[in-house]
Amino acid sequence: MKAYKFLLAGVCSMFMFSSCLEEFQKLNTNPEEFGTADPAAVFHGATKNYNNSSRAHLTGMYSGSMRLMQYLVSSGGASSGIYNNLENKTSRTSPSNQIYSNYYSSFGLRLDNLINTLIPGTDNPERYNDIKAIAQILLNHQQWLVLDCYGAAPITEAFKVGEGIRTPQYDLYQKSINGEPMYKIIDADVKKAVATLKASGDNQYKLDKNDFFYNGDVAKWIKFGNTLRVLMAQRLEKADASFYNTVIND
To answer: What's the CA gap between 136 and 47, in Å, rounded?
Structure first.
């Protein structure tokens, strides 16, 4: 009888182990798909140390992209060859890639996954509308930083390897691959996200402490979104006065 119990336990364990293996097989069928996760927790991880992940990260921006964008200059003035080398017509600067790598390997990649993959795959995606809208504002902020610094970058077709796009086309700040100005597309996305937050209801899941910025305060995110729109529009006050005035009037 004792041997029978051991045999029965062994058979049950084998079936349980087999069932676990089947679950792992299902999860790993498509390497581009992720398991389920709490969107609030993913937002927490996606925005951790936002734009300042280390001292080297911060100093890299000071010595690289911020200098090339003329946000600052050393006390002794810009050294020869920083912006161009008149002695060598084919030379080019090699800016710090912090902003670029932030978008494509860190903040942008994770926020895009949260917006377009994780939340749509939840049981109640509409209850995460606020989190999705906040993530969208930050994603647009990252897109603007990339284009403001580099002028051209893959945005429209970025992060679409699951759709078979492994060599995405480059968008220009003034013209996307679809022909519309990229700065207008980004502005429209932020405006839509702000409208979503203004329509927030009591049924929405809260970010609370998962939000390093405003502890999930929707009203503050609405202000941030509107401020971001003004900031982006000010860069075009002279180049596209009509667009600038439209945003300011909004």
So the answer is: 12
For 119, the enclosing helix (H) or strand (E) is none
Report the candidate in 145, 221, 154, 159 with the shortest Cα–Cα distance to residue 190. Answer: 221
Per the document, the length of the chain is: 250
Torsion of CA 191, 194, 198, 204, to 10 degrees: 140
Looking at residue 94, its pLDDT comes to 57
Q: Which residue has the tokens 């084919």?
A: 90
Within 10 angstroms of residue 197's Cβ, the number of other Cβ atoms is 21
Radius of gyration of the chain (CA): 24
Distance of CA 47 to the CA centre of its chain: 9
What is residue 114's DSSP assignment?
I
Rounded Cα–Cα distance for residues 150 and 68 (Å): 10
What is the pLDDT averaged over residues 145-161? 93
Identify the DSSP state of 116. I
- pLDDT at residue 54, rounded to an integer: 72
Angle of helix 182-198 versus helix 218-234 axis, rounded to 10: 160
- What's the rounded Cα separation, in Å, for the pair 176 and 152? 9
DSSP E strands in the chain: the ranges are 152-153, 171-172
Residue, of 51 and 85, whose pLDDT is higher: 51
Amino acid at position 210, single letter: N
CB 61 within 8 A of CB 99: yes
Residue with more model confidence, 232 or 54: 232
